[in-house]
Amino acid sequence: MRIVRFLRRKLGEAEIWVSLAVAWVLVRFVPFNWWRKSIGPIGGEGMAALRVDEAATRRAYGLGRAVERIADRAWFAPVCLPRAIAARWMLNRRGIPSRIVFGSRRNDDPAGRKLLFHAWLKVADVVVTGAQGHHAFVPFEKRSTENSSDKSAGEDRPERELSDAIATRKF
To answer: Model-level pTM?
Structure first.
């Protein structure tokens, strides 16, 4: 019985390593519009379908912790977006619905970039990956609804901002 548990744990770790590596390669080297559909709903898209029971939420949280732990040890240093993508794929294979949320905030450092970006994965209302510091970022869909009374809000679409941020490798 211990051998089965050991093998199951090692196979799970291998799945995390492979998922992280593939997600990192996609983010680094492949144009966003080629892999956009592979990451599922983003932000507020399809939020009504994210009803998840408590057991699945606990399982997702545990998987997210494992992804974060292994990503911290990876030599290729996957940041928030590859971690969220890898966990999203793994949860999808287990039948647990999730969504990736993208956010941005102004950078206080005058020598750095003007905007900082962050991605985190949510299952129901629980942040599975990217929880550290995610409250400091404004989700794209929230910002776009705040600007909806403005005529120029149509130009400030979250999808365009996201595509531009990923294209310039800001995640």
So the answer is: 0.81
- The DSSP-derived string for 86-106 is HHHHHHHHTT---EEEEEEEE
CA separation (Å) from 140 to 16, 59, 90, 95, 131? 27, 27, 24, 26, 16
pLDDT in tens, 28-56: 999 988 888 888 777 665 555 567 889 99
Report the half-sphere exposure of 38 (CA within 13 A, side-chain side).
Answer: 18
DSSP string over 115-150:
EEEEEEEEETTEEEE--TTGGGSEEHHHHHHHTTTS
User: For residue 124, which of 98, 157, 86, 162 has the smallest C-alpha distance?
Assistant: 98
Instruction: Work out whether strand 126-129 and strand 115-123 pair parallel, antiparallel, or are unpaired.
Output: antiparallel
